Amino acid sequence: MNLRKNFLWGGATAANQYEGGYLEGGKGLTINDVEMGAEHGKKREIHDSIQNDAYYPSHEGTDFYHRYKEDISMFAEMGFKSFRLSISWARIFPNGDDLIPNEAGLQFYDDVFDELLKYGIEPIVTLHHFELPLNLVTKYGAWRNRQLVELSVRYAKTVMERYKNKVKYWITFNEINALFISSAPWHMAGILYKEDENRHNTMLQAAHHQLIASALTVIEGKKINPDFQFGCMLLYPCTYAATCNPEDQITVRNKLLSTYYFGDVQVRGKYTNTCSSYIDSLDGSIDFELGDEAILAKGTVDYISFSYYFSGIEGVGEDIEMAEGNLSSGGKNPYLDMTEWGWQIDPIGLRNSLNSLYDRYQVPLFIVENGIGALDEVKNDGSIEDDYRIDYLRQHISAMVDAVEKDFVDLIGYTVWGPIDIVSAGTGEMRKRYGFIYVDKDDQGHGTLNRSKKKSFDWYKKVIETNGNYVK
């Protein structure tokens, strides 16, 4: 079994890290627009409103809003078959609860999709990628509130109806399980916990509201265009037992409970024993409304998309040293190297992850985020020799190909995270670069925003031209 002939090679981004134009074209404020940039290694500070003397990275991103034609042209030069991007809810409904959509926002994405389709690039659209309109936080309490289900479905129906002939692949919520994994629920659900709040119940209820919203989006989307393909999106924390101690195997299962929780509900259409086990472990509870079970059963997804960057170990031993990763952490593995940001590099873990997900769910998979953040040095002649990025991606793509050719995993595509440099979601920094395309901007927001190719640009072009054979 080889990669599909129409395998969706490409790249992935998010509006809050890339788009910019934060108040242009009638767009409203989002939760990202009140997050300051942070110094290296520190968390970002959140404000109630815009402070005049502060730097907010999302306001400009790396300016896709004004430069989308230039960027898409460069993606096309690399041979992209697909491009994953998110729609900013606040660009369509500035306050999130408006009755009439913002035509300028709708037209912007029309123009972007037209530009992509001009080059034969398939748009992969994420409806919710950590971009909640700020008004929904201050007025409703964010995803704590059941009213966001109705509001989010109104937004989803509006854009699906508008782009029904331009977009086929949709992702409802980016890394939806990160609400359970991450210590930053602000990004995932616009939530800052109150001192007297039962955090576990709030987290479980907010997740339930998102799951209901996702299912209703699928149901309504299929009415608009039966050919739509909907995916859930999971942060997949590939995890190994620290030792052969049977107790360590249980810790691995417990680590993955919060990931399979969302996969089970969105693929199987119900809260399974895995979900019940996780809820019980938190001594938590969820309030269901009449009809919720039927909604979840009907609104299942067609494929699973996921992000993969690193792996970790888990065990009962007290001597396990922890390592950071994408919105989560795991124990250090002595067999693995690490990135400059302390993320463990495990290409075989991608193959293991593909097999784990496919064995469990038996639906097509889509790798929509994978890449390495690194410090790129611009030489005097303007060149950037990012062999470390090429090496990282070569190994991971090779492992991906093995999962398809040797293990017969059904895989739709592969989109590299950050095909062009964008600001970091965690800190707002620019120094942590993922792209094949360099953007002249620094951590304080200074720079020309000019684009230039890195060495990896031509390498990835060859990978796509050969449908992955170039990595062998």
> Oligomer, anyone?
single chain
Hey, roughly how much beta strand do the residues contain? 5-15%
- Share of residues in helices: 25-40%
Count helical runs.
Answer: 15
How many angstroms does the end-to-end distance come to? 15 Å
Tell me the CATH topology: TIM Barrel
Give the overall average pLDDT. Answer: 94
Quick one: how many beta strands?
Answer: 16
- CATH H-level superfamily: Glycosidases
CATH 2nd-level architecture: Alpha-Beta Barrel
Supply the helix-strand structural class.
alpha/beta
Main sheet?
8 strands, parallel, barrel
Rg (CA only): 21 Å
CATH class: Alpha Beta
Q: Strand order, biggest sheet?
A: 1-2-3-4-5-7-13-14
The number of domains: 1
Which regions are unreliable across 5 or more consecutive residues at pLDDT < 50?
none
Categorize the overall geometry.
globular
Question: What this model shows, in words?
Answer:
Helix 9 (199-224) crosses helix 12, helix 10 packs across helix 11 (273-281) and helix 13 (347-361) runs parallel beside helix 14. The strands form five sheets. Strands 1-2-3-4-5-7-13-14 form an eight-stranded parallel beta barrel, surrounded by four helices. Strands 6-8 form a two-stranded parallel sheet. Helix 14 links the parallel strand 13 and strand 14 (411-417). The chain has 472 residues and is α/β, with parallel strands linked by helices. It has a single domain, classed as Glycosidases (TIM Barrel, Alpha-Beta Barrel). The longest helix is centred in the middle third of the chain and has 26 residues, at 199-224. The model has no long low-confidence stretch (mean pLDDT 94). The radius of gyration is 21 Å and the shape is globular. 38% of the residues lie in helices and 15% in strands. The protein has 15 helices and 16 strands.
